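Input.
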Amino acid sequence: MSTTAAVSPAEGRAPARRPRDLPVPEAFEITDYVSGLGAHLAGPANVIMQLSWPGVGYGVMNSRVHSGSAMKHPFKRGRTTFTYLAVALLGDDDDRAAYRKAVNVQHAQVYSRPGEKAEYRAMDPRLQTWVAACLYYGTLDMREKMHGPVPAEEADALYAYCSRFGTTLQMPADAWPADREAFDRYWEESMAEVRIDPEVAAFLMQLTTLRNFPKPFRLAASFNVFVTTGFLPPLFREAMSLPWSERKQRRFDRLMRFLGAVERRMPKVLRIYPFNFYLHEMRLRRRFRRPLV
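Output.
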């Protein structure tokens, strides 16, 4: 008589991996929500929102990865940021795995040292969840300001899809609030951690006024400050001491409606530019074994 214990088919197998991404309806088309124009307009405001948590603000400002510094290398920083967004939104699993590996090399070097005002670590999933939340908030907000309200079913799909802003790095899928109602609670609770110290505010204003770019680009500084302030929720405007008025709000609303009407008449390949360009460039870099970041 055999003494060998019966083994069920499931025993001895490696544990199943948790899914990296949240499920999204097959009919959902993310390119309907990708806007190159909107990203350029709303991007600076989103950076302020992300860096309003001290762990992110001081981490970016004090980063020892000088090759990726927005102050020292603004064009390269712009390329890497747009490429990350392009990979997260439009890339396949291989694209995202490759870019995650490249970004991790940089992020592993970003952590706080004794005596700094805030503790931070760029690989921290909690901080990455906050950054992803800001990117989702900005994506929806920009879409609605330019094109009006998003239907509830599509908004649910967009919300689930935007978890990729975090899951493309270290944020686990179950860290993303379960639904839009849960996200609203998370967002409100996160406001308690918003703190923009004077040195971080000064750093952000240098970026907003385009002081990191060559002089010709600074001609657009006033416009950039206006649009950036318009995209910021009131709490963040106050934290940055950026004045706003009803008159400015009306000007901003008119501008967004006009630009939205222009964008709706553009072919998709132009609407999603430069995201499609940067995704293609990243794939070429992979093919020819060039640095991705």
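The radius of gyration is 21 Å.
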